[in-house]
Amino acid sequence: MRRISLLLPAALWAAVWMTGAPAPKALSSFGPQVKAVLARMTLDEKIGQMTQAEQDALKDQADIENLFLGSLLSGGNSDPKEGNSSDCPC
Fold first, then answer.
1. Angle at the Cα of 32 (from 29 to 37), degrees rounded to 5?
2. pLDDT tens column, 12-42
3. Which of the 8 DSSP states describes residue 82?
4. How far apart, in whole angstroms, are the C-alpha atoms of residue 83 and residue 44?
5. 3-state secondary structure 24-76
């Protein structure tokens, strides 16, 4: 079953590609800038930016930079160490 779930996205992509569907429209005027940044990023950087790791899973704060993480999840019982209260003087 796991093998099928891994193949399904690839099959869907191939079906769309083979139909000759038109290229998607640009979402904003920043398209060229986004493409330039993505072209400079490594595959590891792209994967890190799409990963939202649970903050309690980090062994070291340096993992954020080392793994190129774009965000951290503070869910369940993993509130920030400093606390997470509604009386923030922000």
1. 125
2. 666 666 667 676 666 688 888 989 999 999 9
3. T
4. 31
5. CCCCCCCHHHHHHHHHHCCHHHHHHHHCEEEHHHCCCCHHHHHCCCCEEECCC
